[in-house]
């Protein structure tokens, strides 16, 4: 029993994203979905009773090992110092918003430096590109969705909400008379 429990915990730790019981079953080579669900509930209770930095969260039959909110500030600083600098993140956000994006449109929006950003994002595995006439079409990969813990269908909704919030904030700023 302990070996199977450890396998489930290892899968959650390694993937770092939401998984359903079937995915955990395949990854851990444990056939019983009922056993996996029971073990996940036990692990969730165990992590909840600890005063550690980790927790197991459940969202609509999907499970994830996560950092407690009290410690997120540490990871945000570490991530911001890590792989993607702010200009590259902004280029990625434009691509995610337009998904799929035409490279020439991204370059018009972000400038010539975006070619370097796109190259880095492709090297890191966040994007793929396909020839499209004299330019390319840029598409997000599964790594993007896993890394940023976002579901493909929800991405546009989140970006649209953010844009609405931005517009509401801007409308609160007093405008100068010209």
Question: Would you summarize the structure shown here?
Answer:
This protein is of the alpha+beta class and 178 residues long. The protein has helices at residues 2-15, 21-28, 33-49, 72-80, 86-98, 103-110, 114-123, 142-147, 152-172, and strands at 19-20, 54-59, 62-67, 101-102, 127-132, 135-140. Helix content is 60%, strand content 16%.
Task: Explain how this protein is built.
The structure is a single chain. With 178 residues, the protein is of the alpha+beta class. The protein has 2 domains: 70 residues, Winged helix-like DNA-binding domain superfamily/Winged helix DNA-binding domain (Arc Repressor Mutant, subunit A), CATH 1.10.10.10; 84 residues, Orthogonal Bundle (Arc Repressor Mutant, subunit A), CATH 1.10.10. Helices cover 60% and strands 16% of the residues. It contains 9 helices and 6 strands; from the N terminus they run H-E-H-H-E-E-H-H-E-H-H-E-E-H-H. Strands 1-3-2 form a 3-stranded antiparallel beta sheet. It has a 3-stranded antiparallel beta sheet with strand order 4-6-5. A hairpin with a 2-residue loop joins strand 5 and strand 6. Helix 1 packs across helix 2 and helix 5 packs across helix 7. The protein is elongated, with a radius of gyration of 20 Å. The termini are far apart. The C terminus is likely disordered.
């Amino acid at each position: 029993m302990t070996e199977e429990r450890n396998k489930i915990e290892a899968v959650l730790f390694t993937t770092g994203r939401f998984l359903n019981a079937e995915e955990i079953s395949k990854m851990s080579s444990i056939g019983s979905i009922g056993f996996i669900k029971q073990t996940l509930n036990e692990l969730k209770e165990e992590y909840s009773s600890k005063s550690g930095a980790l927790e197991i969260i459940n969202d609509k039959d999907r499970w994830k090992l996560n950092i407690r909110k009290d410690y997120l500030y540490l990871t945000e600083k570490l991530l911001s110092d890590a792989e993607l600098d702010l200009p590259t993140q902004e280029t990625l956000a434009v691509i995610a918003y337009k998904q799929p994006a035409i490279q020439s449109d991204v370059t018009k929006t972000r400038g010539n430096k975006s070619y370097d950003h796109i190259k880095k994002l492709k090297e890191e595995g966040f994007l793929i590109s396909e020839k499209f006439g004299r330019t390319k079409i840029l598409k997000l990969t599964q790594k993007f969705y896993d890394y940023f813990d976002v579901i493909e269908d929800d991405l546009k909704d989140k970006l649209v909400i953010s844009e609405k919030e931005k517009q509401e904030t801007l409308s609160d700023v007093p405008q100068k008379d010209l």
